[in-house]
Amino acid sequence: MGTALGLFLAARLLGTAVVAAAAWAAGQHPVLLLGRSWDSIWYLRIAGAGYGRSLRFHPDVVHSDLAFFPLYPGLLRGVMELTPLSGPAAGLLVSWTAAGVAACGIWAIGARLHGRAVATVLVLLWGLLPHSVVLSMAYTEPVLTAFAAWSLHAVLTGRWVWAGVLATGAGLARPNGFAVAAAVLAAAAYELWRRRGKVTHRLWTGAALAPLGWAGYVLWVGRRQGDLFGGYFEVQRLWGSRYDFGLGALRFVRHLLLEGDRLVFPMSMVLVAAALLLYGLLAADRAPLPLLVYAGVLLAVAAGGDGFFECKPRFLLPAFPLLLPLACALVRTARARPWHATLVVGALAGLSFAYGAYLVVLAHKPL
């Protein structure tokens, strides 16, 4: 695990250094770009003053901070109260720490399924994704991935209570965190069927705990909005986010193909298409059910949701099981043709670092 974590940290530090260099060249401050931009601003405000802020742009366009789940701003507030760090620095500390914990969890899953070599490559690939710059920012994806990876590992090793507790944390981190609960519940249902109902109370406890974080926050927002079951989804609708089974995304893809647009949008289209292909490969490799359900739900949410098309690759960052087929293939290549594998990793690193700097410093589009 030490080698994998070291490679991951090296990749992210190099990526962050490229962002810093680009920021200084553009006359901007890298800490502010990484720690206080886009969604990070909302999380910092929630950490400092709690919920209750809305920006009204139009009767049908209202951005409310209730769209943001509470775990990350809660962690920010705790760090700011216990340390002298500023809000952006606290956000970066939380995210970088969570990214390291997530990398360890991803390695543990990869090692259990395919051995240490594949696990190490899996972690490195995760750190070199085109949108992996988000792992170095004050964003929630590292926190969600940390809870998700260790919850899924707990499922694979039969520790059901831990799986449920960690799934609760994932559900409090992000709206798509319910993918972890779905994976735990699917695995529990399969065990219940396989053992014909003869399961321990720990399985029942883990299954009961898994959805509590996500459901609890959604219901809390609903109660606050006066619509217990629909209030949170109305908040999301007013942000421009809704689930339409991909119809809005397909309309936007048509626009890209016929009219073109800025680099961020076609790149997002390509990355979502690649994720769909990788999911097919993951299913063909007969990956464990919890990983298939978890990655499948994240992919369905990202591909099927309308609004913020440029953010879809970020929504897929926690879907690390999609990288398992690539990690296995790269390990086989490294054993047969080491230089070929080295060139592939180098190309991925170059793309990741350059595109990450472009996204943060130059694109001026929501991440």
From TrEMBL:
The keyword Repressor does not apply. Its main location: endoplasmic reticulum. One of its GO terms (biological process) is GPI anchor biosynthetic process. GO terms for molecular function: alpha-1,6-mannosyltransferase activity; GPI mannosyltransferase activity. Pathway: Glycolipid biosynthesis; glycosylphosphatidylinositol-anchor biosynthesis. It is found in: Endoplasmic reticulum membrane. The chain crosses the membrane at residues 89-110, 117-140, 160-190, 202-220, 263-284, 291-309, 315-334, 341-361. It is a multi-pass membrane protein. Keywords: Endoplasmic reticulum, Glycosyltransferase, GPI-anchor biosynthesis, Membrane, Signal, Transferase, Transmembrane, Transmembrane helix. GO terms for cellular component: membrane. Residues 1-22 form the signal peptide. This is Glycosyltransferase RgtA/B/C/D-like domain-containing protein. It comes from Streptomyces apricus.
